[in-house]
Design goal:
The protein has about 140 residues and is an alpha+beta fold. The chain has helices spanning about 10-40, 75-95, 110-120, 130-140; strands spanning about 45-55, 55-65, 65-75. The chain has one domain (about 5-105).
């Protein structure tokens, strides 16, 4: 089976976003998580510091006076990494998918078909309201 965005539905798009965000978190935070794990396993002393200064997120992990890990990233970069690729995937999906994607699978029930057929009927000239009201007047008098 070939990979095709034309066959994707909204749930496939959402799952692709989740996979992207989880992958982004794992790739971006893996070195920090590994350093934090090493710090928690040893009986030595250490610290973890994080903060935002002038629109830049800074973090470091220190163990016994030595820096195990240090990292910094601009908040605008974080925002762009989180938002732009899923937005681009959504635009591509929107442009490539058909408006009638999987429309053949959605069939109205028989009662719904009957309701639709009855709603299409419009009264003809012989079924006008004026003739009914004239007949009612004759019967009443």
């Amino acid at each position: 089976m070939r990979f095709s965005l034309r066959r994707w539905r909204a749930r496939h798009l959402f799952l692709a976003w989740l996979v992207y965000w989880i992958g982004l978190a794992v790739v971006g935070l893996w070195p920090a998580l590994a350093a934090g794990w090493r710090l928690s396993q040893n009986s030595s002393h250490g610290s973890v510091n994080a903060g935002v200064t002038d629109g830049v997120f800074n973090a470091n992990i220190i163990q016994s006076g030595q820096t195990l890990w240090a990292g910094s990233v601009a908040l605008s970069t974080i925002g762009l990494l989180i938002a732009v690729p899923p937005l681009a995937l959504w635009v591509v999906w929107l442009l490539t998918s058909s408006r009638t994607n999987n429309a053949g699978e959605i069939r109205p029930t028989q009662t719904r078909q009957r309701e639709l057929k009855e709603a299409d009927r419009t009264p003809g000239m012989t079924e006008s309201f004026s003739q009914t009201s004239i007949r009612q007047r004759r019967e009443e008098s």
